[in-house]
Amino acid sequence: MKPHVAVLPSPGLGHVIPLLELAKVLVVHHGVQVSFLNITTEASVAQNQLLHPHTLPPGLRVIDLPPADISTLVSEETLVLTRLCINAEESLKPLKSVLMELGKLQALVIDLFCTQAFEICNELSIPTYTFFTPSISFLAFSLYLPTLDRDVDCEFIDLPAPVQVPGCTPVRTDDLLDQVRNRKIDEYRWYLLHVNRLPMAAGIFLNSWEDLEPVSFKAIREHPFYQKIPRPPVHPIGPLIKRDAATTESDVECLAWLDEQPSNSVLFVGLGSGGTLTAAQLTELAWGLEMSRQKFIVVARKPSDASASATFFNVGGDVNDPKSYLPEGFLERTKGVGLVVPSWGPQELVLRHPSTGAFLSHCGWNSTLESITHGIPMVAWPLYAEQRMNATMLVEEVGVAVKPVVEPGKGVVAREEIERVVRMVLEGEEGKVMRRRARELKVKAEKTLNFGGSSYESLSRVTKEWKAQHL
After folding, report:
1. What pTM was estimated for this model as a whole?
2. Based on the domain organization, do 85 and 174 belong to the same domain?
3. Same domain, 112 and 9
């Protein structure tokens, strides 16, 4: 009998995808049986398609948790993290009985927003691990946040200098994640609650590896601050990215179009599972792409002036007609040069394609890892959550991205600036340097995941412990 582990992500594709990939790796490469617990409350069309294909490996089964009624607890105005946390809290009320029905478990792996599981698993004597799905540098910041909260009285964005995370590159106040920019809101309280519970984990898995983030990794392992606080063992096991995606009819058309394009010539524009632009910014983006005269694929969504994460809970479910919101005549004028895909595109397949030369990305961590794993340089376009921190790191430390500049007093990136950075990354000398760096990291990413590589061995050490308990 193989050891049995349960895996529990919080809602949203950005959380589900890396935990599902971890589940597959455990089953296929480490001889572990996995029950994947799926929160179905407000699950998007794309999430349901991802978790119920016919291609999951034997030994991995998806268990749908019953949907919870959260209609009286949230409204249209509820911010995305608060909504996510309320959803998880309500959906996990039957967790104890679900875990008991599964029989003897060697471990439960949760993500950051399912920490209600710690108390339940403590009662049931199940070791619980956290899979921290953003970057190592963001884990360093998050472990430091309770100290920052205690020591600083003012709002963090009003600090006179960048936040000095112990042993790491200082974080500019402009780059701080949305959830900590206002300490009076529910989102801040939810985030602080969950990071305060991180020490309850038996270990923290990280979707990264040492070659990508050497400074932050060394800080968490060796800096006196992280030695002093109650920090569980950390296990870098990344980059775990979405692979072997099922293709739809529109995906096939998209890939066929790419087949006709020259090598490294196409800019892929995709803003993640939740990302949307304002109407004014979408217009500037369209004009900038047209003016650049470069090949492009754009995953187009209806603009939202209310929220940059407007499609977080309904990705893949919005039907839209790009003609209704792109500049008049744009589709006709760019025919043959560009391809517009409504709502949702085959990101991993596009990034893997030899014709793709650059990626205009919101810098969510999953997308960042996909880009680096395929050796693709980026135009960094952060929208929400910790994406500004990721973007700065990719530009200034990793050297695989360029970030457009917003002129003072303007709320949007101008079309001329978009034209400049698109040409630069696809045709310029700076773009060639970034592409070389991305390709170096691609080779290192493959190496770390293979048998004997640091991420493979890091996960293997934990699974050996589970197997020893199982005997």
Report:
1. 0.95
2. yes
3. yes
